[in-house]
Amino acid sequence: MQSFGEMQSMATNIFSAYASVAASMMLYRSMVNDIIPEPVKAFFYSTFNRFFKSFFDRFFGKLSTHMTVVVDEQNGFTRNQIYDAAEIYLRTIINPDAERLKANKTTKQKNISLSMEKGQELTDFYKDFQLKWQFILVEPDGDKGRFQSEKRYFELTFEKQNKDTVLNDYLPFVLAKAKEMKENERAVKLYTRDCPFDNNDDDDGGGNGGGYWGCVNLDHPATFDKLAMDPNMKRAIVEDLDRFVRRKDYYRKVGKAWKRGYLLYGPPGTGKSSLIAAIANYLRFDVYDLELTSVYSNSELRRILLCTNNKSILVIEDIDCSGQMHDRERDTQSEHEDSSNTKLTLSGLLNFIDGLWSTCGDERIIIFTTNHKEKLDPALLRPGRMDMHIHMGYCTPEGFDVLASNYLGINDHHRLVPEIKRLIREVEITPAEIAEHLMRSEDVDLALEGVVDLLKQKGEAKKNETPDDQKKCDVEENKSDEGVDQGKKRKFRGIMKDLTKFRRRRGIGKGKML
Ligand SMILES: Nc1ncnc2c1ncn2[C@@H]1O[C@H](COP(=O)(O)OP(=O)(O)OP(=O)(O)O)[C@@H](O)[C@H]1O
Ligand SMILES: [Mg+2]
Q1: Is 493 within the bounds of a domain?
Q2: 431 CB less than 6 Å from ligand 1?
Q3: pLDDT score for 295
Q4: How many domains does the chain have?
Q5: Among the four residues 191, 291, 424, 508, which has the most C-beta atoms within 10 Å?
């Protein structure tokens, strides 16, 4: 071991050697200045400086107990992920009372974010030690030509003894934290096939689904808290979703595609679409709303589905109308006889969802909705097809509490609430109907009186119903469903005709994409 005195005298010797070399250099410099061309001179000086800088850094670095990791913004031509992550992560430890801060907001961000100023330092604590981040910004140095553009980087300084923990634990922690924060800031998107907009300005490779999908931000306010539904069912769904997203390794281990399927069924206005929005907001997954009537063939469906991103929910509403898929085969038989095997069929859809598509992506959720579970093709209901069947039913007294607190900001202390709850037990009323009445007046008494009147009317109508009326009602309901189905079929046929005309006009052959 060298003593401090020895080291000091060694440093003094090195300094004097450097001084004498530098003096000689000055002399030579003036002599050769006129005869050596400029580029050769520049190369010579920079090599000389670099040599002495690295020598001194190494010498004095040995004496320091700290080390510094430089996190450059760019790694060659690509961005350095650690730099981007640090920029996001440091917002969490930035002191909002600091004397100088930078405030930023991009169109993609929901909130204003704070960032570090040039030269600013931040202290972080990880496990039982301290780290220091410093933001460095080197401005272009014009004529000298070393930095043509701004150079940004962070210097992360910590005690040498913590090197392994910093590299193996702390930096991965920063990366993970930043990823989570970015995910939470990102707006959830709604993709549809007929949307003319493409608001996807994500830089995560999201794209616009190969041109098959247009998207807008899904600014749907639905959350699980605001949903009026069976509390046990609500809890079971949230637990199922949580289990699903944290089980990546498990799915891999058992050799199953990382996907989950839900079937939502129940009368109109019971909250099936609201539940889908609540799931999307909860998981921050994008929603792909697929209208099957706009899909012509199995192969087209495959292409459309392959253009969806991970961490997404594929929604197919009113799947009971899938019977039309078989009709569609017949409808178009004459025009596309030799391509009947490519027509869209329920089995084509299910095979693809179960097979190839689900294995080429991660974290996929598929949701089918229907008003008539009993009308569904048995292929959809067979065990293992949909992981959870969720019944969205008529409003319950507990459901009313949620709606009342949501729409009027009241709890069950209001004088009319017990009566409303009693009436709700006696009639079938959807949350949508109640919600609509609660919104009719800002005056709480008036709004609740409206709900009481509605419930009483429903109760009276039910009392006056004879068994024959009930039968007639069922038949009419079926008829009106038929009407809806017929309407949907008509709409579908119209689309198919337009498609065929369009293909002919553009000279597109059978089975080809538009
Ligand atoms: N369970 C619920 N909780 C809270 N609000 C609800 C619920 N059900 C319906 N609503 C209200 O009624 C409106 C319509 O509901 P929603 O579209 O979710 O019903 P749906 O079951 O999807 O109906 P459909 O079968 O016709 O598609 C919602 O915007 C919401 O305001
Ligand atoms: Mg709906």
Answers
A1: no
A2: yes
A3: 84
A4: 4
A5: 191
